[in-house]
Amino acid sequence: MTPPVTRAPVPAPTPAFRRLPPSGGRPVKGSGRPFTVLLGADYAGKSSVLRRLADGDDWTVVSYDRGLLDPGSPLVGRVRDELLGEALAEPGRYSPDLVLTLMQVAVVHLRDRVAAAPPGRRVIVDSYYFKILAKCRLLSMGNETLFSWWRSFPRPENVVLLDVLPHEAWRRSGQGEYANGMEHYGDEPAEGAFRTFQTDLRETLLNEVKDLDVTVVPQQDGVDEAVGAVERATRNLQHA
Question: What's the pLDDT score for residue 12?
Fold first, then answer.
């Protein structure tokens, strides 16, 4: 049965959809092309949902993730691999500004691919700039001049946030085995530092998108259920 949709503050995951009305404040800048952002803390299942949507005929999926990246953008993939394999694997080797510059390649790529998306299909974007910005702020890698520029980018029509409980995210990370340096506090992915970071990340993400139409989808039992929840959350949007 389809979970009911209610409008209310969201302090913690619960077993019902919640659509959060925009709070006002930052103006919403149109893109000329409506799009949805799929957001979530780490290990929420976002990539699995996007891969399933990419296999269908209804959505254009915009992402820099391996397996979802536009094959015509190999430079973006190489930068992503170097970021994960070297810059984040060796904390302190490079300055925060340099690491942030590498991340900006992904942010600008997402913006450009939304603008270039073909007509006739709905567009869904992997995290947009919201998640990178939130993580940088939590890890003291802030650059407000750069963040202000990102916030001037076209704004999505709505955001769907996939929830995951911190202890489940820890389990999905292989108890920290698969976690990278931007998924926890401190030098090592200890459980407490990981779970605290994920809790703070969720709060920071919701604060960043508070001026937008946000639907929070509770933690799902599997990929099929998560895909169905995202489809229901976006069913009435007119993207094409």
Answer: 45
Q: How far apart are CA 156 and CA 53, in angstroms?
A: 18
The gap between the terminal CA atoms of the chain, to the nearest Å, is 28
In angstroms, the CA 63 to CA 154 distance is: 16
pLDDT at 142: 85
Let me know: does 197 contact 23? Beta carbons within 8 Å: no
Q: Chain centroid to CA 56: how far?
A: 21
The pLDDT assigned to 8 comes to 36
20, 205 Cβ separation under 8 angstroms: no
Are the C-beta atoms of residues 163 and 50 closer than 8 Å to each other? no
Low-confidence ranges of the chain (pLDDT < 70): 1-19, 21-32, 236-240
Task: Please report, as a single letter, which amino acid is at residue 192.
Answer: G
Determine the pLDDT at residue 17.
63
Of 221, 228, 230, 232, the C-alpha closest to 165 is 221
**DSSP, residue by residue, 36-99:** EEEEESTTSSHHHHHHHHHTSSSEEEE--STTTS-TT-HHHHHHHHHIIIIITTSTTSS-HHHH
Closest CA to 193 of 208, 205, 175: 175
Contact 117, 60 (CB under 8 A): yes
**SS3 of 216, please?**
strand
The Cα–Cα gap between 31 and 136 comes to: 25
Per DSSP, the three-state class of 133 is helix
